[in-house]
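From the pipeline queue, job 12 of 40. The input is one protein chain; the requested action is below.

Action: predict structure.
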Amino acid sequence: MRIAVAGGTGIVGRYVVEAAQQAGHEVAVMSRRTGVDVRSGEGLAAALAGADVIVDTTNAGTTDRAKATAFFTETTGRLQAVGAGEGVARLVTLSIVGLERVAGYGYYEAKLAQDSAVLAGPLPVTIVRATQFHEFPAQVLRRTRRDRSP
């Protein structure tokens, strides 16, 4: 099976790529580093050519509701449209367990918008809701850390 991993060089994407390769799958790693920009579409059709499945592990890189929502809905729409055009059979999207229960957190609301956008596209979809990863506490601490030096 040929699996295209959007965000394949990121924190989660690297794990997906490694697991898929260890299982014997052919993997197309999609990221700006590999010449594929999912948001603009640059290199996307070529990366999806012959793919059976897309696994979307992209991240918006912001917790701002409007910016994250724009990112997730644009990239999801592009993966759906280009994937359908290339004959991809399924889109798997990473989401977060319980995000609908945390009102007012912009990033989670953006992920909910992504869930809705992915379900609205032409490809069959699997939404995988996972718990936050071990890296999450360190990421939160980096964002909230204050320098207490004199």
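Job complete. Residues 65-85 form the longest helix (21 residues).
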